[in-house]
Prior knowledge:
With 169 residues, the protein is mainly alpha-helical. The chain has helices at residues 4-23, 26-42, 53-71, 77-88, 97-104, 107-115, 121-129, 135-142, 146-168. The radius of gyration is 17 Å and the shape is globular.
Amino acid sequence: MQDMDAVYRQHAQTVFKYLMSLTHDADLAEELTQETFYQAVRSIDRFDESCKITTWLCAIAKNQYFSYMKKHARMKADSDVDRMDAGTGITEAAMSAEQEVLQQVGQVELLKKLHAFPEPGREVLYLRMFGNLSFREIGEVMGKTENWARVTFFRARTNLKRQLEMDET
């Protein structure tokens, strides 16, 4: 096992991006990233290296996020939507195919569709569209290959577009 300073330097950005895809709030994602590594240090003796360290760290991060949400259950859904709208800021030149979908469909409507979407497509779409993670990073977070992330994203995006087109007609 590497020392935790090296692990932090190597994986903090990936954990932060993963948390950013869940929280849509940079300050909260940073706070939860720090808490994730604190918990990782506390439980390093339980890491058995049966999975990638990134997978282990993202599992801790997800648990930290869920713990935070339980503690702060009084947060209103409106504030979550406001945070995402404020964080969009997409320029025309930088729009990717998935960002075009965000522009064409209201984010609230898109989030409703994504919420009902089956796993693992839902999480891959969230990580790519809202977390801006690369396919390599998504593969690491999910404990899969980069190619798996690409194929899963493509299939999920195709199904999502099909659902949105059916709703328009």
